[in-house]
Amino acid sequence: MKSVTAVINHQALIANLDKIKSLVPNSKIVAVVKANAYGHGLINVAQNIEPKVDAFAVARLPEAMELRSAGITKPVILLEGFLNAEDVIVIAEQGFYTAVHDQEQIDAIESAPINKPINAWLKIDIGMHRLGAGKDEVSKMKQRLESSNKIVQPIGLISHLSVADTPSQSDYNQEQIDYFFSIAKDFTGDLCLANSAGIISWPQARTDYVRPGIIMYGISPYADKTGEDLGLTPVMTLKSSLIAIRKIKKGARVGYGAAWTAPEDTTLGIVAAGYGDGYPRSMPNGSPVLINGRLVPTAGHVCMDMLFVDLGADAKDKIGDEVILWGEGLPVEHIANLCNTIPYELVCRIMPRVNLEIH
Ligand SMILES: *Cc1c(COP(=O)(O)O)cnc(C)c1O
């Protein structure tokens, strides 16, 4: 009998990429594989999609190194730039592309003992106010990068939309796109703007390079839509097994804190999945799991290694039966809504002890 397993459907991944390419036939695809490919397994995802994409993007240098160690040869972009001056040497040696978001990073590149120039994308702040050159710094940073012999010319321009997934903020999104292009008109290098929501909702944001993350995994970036609504196929199905079944009486108080009381005589199922696997403890009573083709409500607090489900008085389910926690037939977007988070967080939070099964 299987404990928690994240089944990764590689055909779905490829189908989603084909769908993305049909939306942006003139853009190069930077596959965003940070955070262990959103919990889907960095190396197996990267190896599988390498022929279909033009580059990879990660957040941190060790993630980029992991890709190289696994034999990935396509360009790897560091979206956050680098955190330490020593990293510049590794970036030059490995030929990584890096975002450059502040003057200190330019200082570090200028003073690094490297004899191979670095591929840099100037990162500008267009409205998120997280990373990137502010309005008063853009031309200075551009000029410094363009006059450096430690930088490959021409430099690229990169930024990130903060409300591309929020229709009620479409004016603010348009403002960000307009500002990006007002800066871009003075660049001859590559432009890189759209994330998943930008690719889907904002054709003007489909620049030379686009950076799909969540939609590659078949998940919607919008709070009110599922991946399937967007013509995508979920890549991850998280499943486990029923490991115990017991009859309980009306009034039985179940689990830690007795957070659920049986309203009637019923059959309780114990599922081998808990917050130690990445299934959120904050899931409320009555959240759905899928067992033998029907939705079954959870009961009581989620434990570290197990959770309870109310199978119903006449349940015929057996020990060992499969339990789907999210994925095929049970969109992760619905599960995320129920515990007040976004599906990005749920898939990223898959714990190391969960088996990855590649199909
Ligand atoms: C994570 C990330 C992305 C991908 O975003 P999705 O919404 O998953 O498509 C793109 N660009 C940057 C800078 C990111 O940090």
Describe this protein with a few key phrases:
single chain; 359 residues; alpha/beta; Lyase, Ornithine Decarboxylase, Chain A, domain 1; 2 domains; binds pyridoxal-5'-phosphate
Helix content: 25-40%
Structural class: alpha/beta
- What ligand species are in this complex? pyridoxal-5'-phosphate
Instruction: Write down the CATH class of the largest domain.
Output: Alpha Beta
CATH architecture annotation name of the largest domain? Alpha-Beta Barrel
Write up what this structure looks like.
- This protein is α/β, with parallel strands linked by helices.
- The chain has two domains: 10-221, Alpha-Beta Barrel (TIM Barrel); 236-358, Lyase, Ornithine Decarboxylase, Chain A, domain 1.
- The chain has helices at 10-23, 34-39, 42-49, 61-69, 87-94, 103-111, 138-146, 170-184, 196-201, 332-338, 343-348, and strands spanning 5-8, 28-32, 55-58, 76-78, 97-100, 119-123, 156-158, 191-192, 209-210, 236-248, 253-254, 260-261, 266-271, 288-291, 294-297, 307-310, 322-326, 355-358.
- The strands form three sheets. Strands 1, 10, 13, 14, 15, 16, 17 and 18 form an eight-stranded mixed sheet that branches. An eight-stranded parallel sheet has the order 8-7-6-5-4-3-2-9. A two-stranded antiparallel sheet has the order 11-12.
- The model has no long low-confidence stretch (mean pLDDT 97).
- Bound molecules: pyridoxal-5'-phosphate.
- Pyridoxal-5'-phosphate binds at residues 32, 34, 79, 160, 195-196, 211-214, 221.
